[in-house]
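haha ok so turns out i had the wrong file open the whole time. this is the CORRECT one, sorry everyone. sequence first:
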Amino acid sequence: MKVHQATLEDLHALTELFELYRAFYKQEANFDRAQQFLKERLINEDSVVFIAYGEGKAFGFTQLYPAFSSLSMERIWILNDLYVKKEARNKGTAQKLIDQAVHLAKETDAKGILLETNQENTPAQKLYDKLGFKKEANQFYFLSLEHYEKNIEE
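then structure:
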């Protein structure tokens, strides 16, 4: 299994993985929009994407977004997406992708990596625990602009 930073040459394979990831989270398929979204991230360097290949096939990816902590005044990376195809699970693929994310964090002098996962995704949580991620008690709030505007109008 080899992992490298994705480029536009990986776009088609990356989009296929991305659509499987979105399907896992019960999102409606939209290959063209997904491909455009990823292409923009790669061209604009808004995110860093690592892709794992084995046997000539793409088996997984992770996407990280840069952010900063005002309190510590340091960079952090948000591991927003991590997906491994079923046939490549429990073979070290996810760990290799996370290893690349850790390498990126170290290379950029980041404080650490933040991630959020579905509560039912216990296999991923076991891996995160094994690798040293700590579950924090923070409660995250998310404001949908659509809901905000509806609340303001009422």
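The helical segments are 11-24, 31-44, 93-107, 122-131, 145-153.
again sry for the mixup
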